[in-house]
């Protein structure tokens, strides 16, 4: 009994002091107790830990998912993910199926954990490379896009230019699903998005896509073109939308598709 308590004590301490073990708990297993069958298995790495398996996949541009076989410590790198043609999930208690786009940013490159606060690109050599002029707070992969939440207030035009500098564009919310994802991350602050009615008062467009707004989430009585005129679109701290003066300075959100 005492032995058991001691064991629990030691493992708890080890868990909290060791960064390595805490990181492992951040891995998101897409389907536990299942393996994906696919013709697109690129490589099988043996005697490798689960975290290392995910790192290997993240370092390979073609790798989208892995099957990790816990008993054999086998790692299958796969150039497909579940849902693509020719894939299926099968029950296998020894297996975890893990998709890369579900994984937290810290795992996407070791430079993230050291000096690089910006985007970390895996080179073909497997080494991480830190790119400047990229998202200052780190890209967040949510759904099908990467988002950068920049918490320095600037005018709408400057925010638009800043996103382009990051090889991205100001946020365009295209659906209720995306609205909910953004709202959960952006609550508590107000942010510029990529909508404007500068060209034609009352007709908002997404400036990057050059399309009219399909989905909208206006606050009641907005857009009202208030004061001396309001032509730029912001998302408020509760997720509702408002038109505001483009010369006001707010935080902003950039987005780009996951390559
Ligand atoms: C109005 C908004 C307007 C904002 C400007 C609010 O009081 O309701 O329509 O955009 O002021 O800061
Ligand atoms: Ca307004």
Could you characterize the architecture of this molecule?
The strands form 3 sheets. Strands 8, 9, 10, 11, 12, 13, 14, 15 and 16 form a 9-stranded mixed beta sheet that branches. By secondary structure, the protein is α+β, with helices and mostly antiparallel strands. The chain folds into 3 domains: 30-103, Hepatocyte Growth Factor (3-Layer(bba) Sandwich); 109-133, no CATH class; 140-257, Mannose-Binding Protein A, subunit A (Mannose-Binding Protein A, Chain A, Roll), CATH 3.10.100. It has helices at residues 2-17, 19-26, 50-58, 110-113, 156-165, 176-186; strands at 31-37, 41-46, 65-69, 74-78, 88-99, 119-122, 128-131, 140-142, 145-154, 169-170, 191-196, 205-206, 211-212, 232-235, 241-244, 250-257. 22% of the residues lie in helices and 32% in strands. The chain is built from 6 helices and 16 strands. The site of calcium ion has 8 residues, from β15.
- Extract low-pLDDT stretches: 1-25, 108-118
Over all CA atoms, what is the radius of gyration? 22 Å
- Gross morphology is elongated
- Give the CATH architecture of the largest domain: Roll
Number of domains: 3
Helix content: 10-25%
What small ligands are held by the chains?
beta-D-glucopyranose, calcium ion
Terminal CA distance: 53 Å
> Could you tell me the mean pLDDT?
82
Number of strands: 16
In the CATH hierarchy, what is the superfamily of the largest domain? Mannose-Binding Protein A, subunit A
Structural class: alpha+beta
Largest sheet, described in full? 9 strands, mixed
DSSP helix count? Answer: 6
Strand content: 25-35%
Order of helices and strands, N to C?
A: HHEEHEEEHEEEEHEHEEEEEE
Which CATH top level class of the largest domain fits? Answer: Alpha Beta
The CATH topology of the largest domain: Mannose-Binding Protein A, Chain A
